[in-house]
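User: Can you help me understand a structure? I only have the sequence.
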Amino acid sequence: MLDHRALTKEDVVLWQRILNRRGWATPSWPKEWGGPGWNVVQRYIFFDELHQFPAPEPLSFNVSMIGPVIGTFGSASRRHTCCRASRTSTIGGARAFPSRVPEATWRR
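Assistant: Let's start by predicting it. Here is the structure, written out as tokens:
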């Protein structure tokens, strides 16, 4: 990131796994959805640190769009299943969070 080069898919997957292990992959989510339960100031500090380091922000599509809708309007069972799935976003067909990403799942 310091050299302003584009991140590889492997870089993004590794970074998402690191964030997920720390519980930071979904910084805006409450604890009951699988997030850290941070308040506005904590989220600000987190993103400020990412930008100063510099480090990429967490993947946002599922985290910002799908997860919150299901978390807000879905049943408890649906929230449990779908919020976890939304947190484990995919990149080009390969899940970013599992411990191993088979190359065959994303190379075409």
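Now, to help you interpret it: The longest strand covers residues 90-91. The CA atoms of residues 46 and 62 lie 19 Å apart. Let me know which part you'd like to focus on.
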